[in-house]
Amino acid sequence: MSAREVNFDGLVGPTHTYGGLSLGNVASMSSEDQVSNPRDAALQGIGKMRTLLRMGLLQGVLPPHERPFVPALRRFGFAGSDGEVVEAAAKAAPALLRNCSSASAMWTANAATVSPSADTGDGRVHFTAANLAAMFHRSIEHPFTSRCLRRIFEGEAFSHHDALPGGGAMGDEGAANHTRLSASHDAPGLELFAYGRSAFEKLSGLHFLPRQAREASEAVARMHRLDPERTVYVRQSQEAVDSGAFHNDVVGVGNGPVLMFHERAYEDPRAMEDEIRRKSEPLGFEPVFLEVPADRVSLLDAIGSYLFNSQLITLPGGGTALILPTEAEDNPRTKRWVDAQVAGNGPITEAHFLDVKQSMKNGGGPACLRLRVVLTDAEREAARPGVLMDEGKLDALEDWVRTHYRDRLSPADLADPKLLEESRAALDALTQTLGLGSVYDFQM
Prior knowledge:
15 strands, 3-stranded mixed β-sheet, alpha/beta, 444 residues
């Protein structure tokens, strides 16, 4: 049965601000307290979706999370009407309000890990919501993420797993540390999990702590019923983490048989390559390794430009394209490397540079904004149709953004109870547009 990849992009939420909340994310930390433009951010994301749709790719959307998230603020002792809760939190605990207002769920590469039915022992598509335990503002996301995925992907074709327990260093950061290599999207594949540490390993003297635990990756693989002979675990290099590669997708990306990664991305890249070669041979494909040398593109260049946080996609007519942020075009070293790949005889045949600056300033490039879900025709038919995009639906989303979103927002504006009202009105309208029904806490 034929299968195709669907990119489910996260819609940027109405409270998109530069809160500087993500320790280890250099772009997020450096943009702290700057004024954001939620309207532009959302329109840039929809523009990226439209570009891929016009290239012949399948495109879906995931809705923003409810923010400010009043139920979490109530758990911290704030009471009264919802507006009074926001006002009281703004006065007594402004940092808490900022965390409970983050629109970081827009980066759906962190939403979950997904294994297609061609890889799993029971022939179903498996989803595990990521616990995102490393950061408080992200750790509150997984209940709604799981609820939303269960609503979109209902029925016997799909298997859903709750987020893993997140105590201590048991962090699971979702698909940002996971990729899949295969001959084609509908062929059995090899699933690659990158991790930064053991959850029980004592680490000290590091600039930034790794976020992904090997034990979490192994648990996801077990729950998804993956064959150990088609599963690879690779450790991120601490040098990359300390340089700002808080997720593997900042220094590596894979698609089909191609794995593109920075020379300094992994602790032992040669052992990784050997294992991938050995395990891919029975699957009938030969892996293609595109290792970017550090003397051509430094780690700082790669992380600053988000060269690897690009979407590596299979074109309907054949060939592979890179969907990159314009920051990778502006950097002469990354641009030179991309141009050489397109001009050469390698797997990359096209490169497209897109403006997603509002997301980039907060530490997320094109690949951060999408969750890759490989679905057969029957599985796609079983998914909720309102979230699968066409030109008309994207037009409707743009109209929705222009109707409901502010064009200027600072972290101080999160204290405005009117923002809560505006955001809920926007989300209420969106669930009707997408045919999701009542999924938000405030709707129940």
